[in-house]
Amino acid sequence: MRALRSMGPIFLVLAVLLVLIAAANPFFLEPAGFLAFVKRAAPLAILAAGQYFVIVSGEFDLSVGSLVTVQVVVAARLIDGNETATWWVLALLIVIGLLVGLANGVITTGLRVPSFITTLGMMLVLSGAVFLWTGGAPRGALSETFRMFGRRDLGPVPWSVLILLVMGGAAIMLMRSDFGKRLIATGDNDRAAGLSGVRVNRTRILAFVVSGLAAAVAGILLGGFAGVSAQVGQGLEFQAITAVVLGGVALGGGRGSVVAAMAGALTLEALFTLLNLHGISGPLEFAVQGVIIIAAVAAGAVRLPFRRAVRA
């Protein structure tokens, strides 16, 4: 019941935005129009789910945007239109995502480098590697099989929506497992969690690995949907963080729901869609994200002393 109450506001905001979009564009009410919206939002919702695992453990992951770009650029270069190369390249992209997440986790926990610095450095390393490899102009082409996941449908439902449902279901099951409980305990108070037997470092490393996996899947979907570009992942790390805090997840960790975080991504996409329908886009989107993050941090700073006072 408490979880439902905490998720209520984000679903209310999402419902209001969807009604406003439907009022501005009646096609949105048709199944094809709504599924097209969810299809666009799917990569961000998957990224937000991955980012949730890191944030709720008390850390940040700023490398996911650059990791998405790496996924798309590497895939285009290695596949280069060759259909037979698609499946092993897809497997390679998943491995790259897992390894980047593992590196972020090990450096953050093993070397005690703040995750903000670790993932910021990883973001720069990945961006530099892409630029060095491509010279700023990606080469190669994605195969039709690769692009199928971001562009095509399976029957009446887009592949992106199906993959979002699978990833969302897996994230919910993971949070309901013992790992999810350990993750929440780690983010709430890592010292107390450690004293109660939780392997804090291992839990946080796994959270970064999940985030890397989410970024890999999002990159595959975005490559299929948007095509090859060296800017495909630009700014996605901040959109994912904005979506998570919009879903009511505490930036300090230990509180929040993965369902609400994914709803936050849908809400952010709905907000951008509404702004576009009214001819407002571009720089204002960044301003909106900045306002949401500042407001969420400010609200958390106000609520935390209140909660402590209530407990006292």
From TrEMBL:
Signal peptide: none annotated. It comes from the Bacteria. It is found in: Cell membrane. It is a multi-pass membrane protein. Pfam families: BPD_transp_2. PANTHER family: ABC TRANSPORTER PERMEASE PROTEIN YPHD-RELATED-RELATED, AUTOINDUCER 2 IMPORT SYSTEM PERMEASE PROTEIN LSRD. This is Autoinducer 2 import system permease protein LsrD. It comes from Streptosporangium lutulentum. The lineage of its organism: Bacteria, Bacillati, Actinomycetota, Actinomycetes, Streptosporangiales.
